[in-house]
Amino acid sequence: MFWPSLVLIGGVGSIAYFYGRFDGEWQNLAVLAGGAAVIVLLWMLPLLFWLAKRYIITTRRIVLRYGLFVRTRQELLHSRGYDVSVRKNAMQSLFRSGNVIINTGLENPVVMRDAPSADLVQSALHDLMEKSLNPIAARRQAEQSGASDETTVWGVR
User: Fold this and answer.
1) How far apart are the C-alpha atoms of 14 and 84, rounded to whole Å?
2) Stretch (H or E) spanning 40
3) How confident is the model over 26-32, as a mean pLDDT?
4) Residue 86, Cβ neighbours under 10 Å: how many?
5) pLDDT at 79
6) Shortest CA distance to 92 belongs to which of 117, 122, 110?
7) Is 67 in contact with 51 (CB distance < 8 Å)?
8) What single string gives the DSSP state of each residue in 63-81?
């Protein structure tokens, strides 16, 4: 929301500067209408889209809800497993935020944009995946990796 906020400040400043400087009333109204249109398109709409996104992380799943006019809800179970990575640009590094990229193996990875404390989110998701390991898969893993009671000699049981 950094760039839209700069647009808001610049738009209000330019309206305040130019309004009333022209001789014709229609020109002053055109400055007001143009500035209002720029503010609505470049500040209000990005703000509404930003407010329409929700990322809810629970102990069992991640719930992603987004969309302004058409709402979409997506759930990712921790027990299914996924890859989590963090990507930061220079501005995000200054504010300790970043994009958390969750690769579920589907065609498009899920991106949580501008997540605050992105490194903490990544480590929390790794911990939650580890804790919610599928019980059947955990039992199979334990059975396959456990030492057997049998003594094995090369080629002979």
Assistant:
1) 43
2) none
3) 94
4) 18
5) 83
6) 117
7) no
8) EEEE-SSS-EEEEEEGGG-
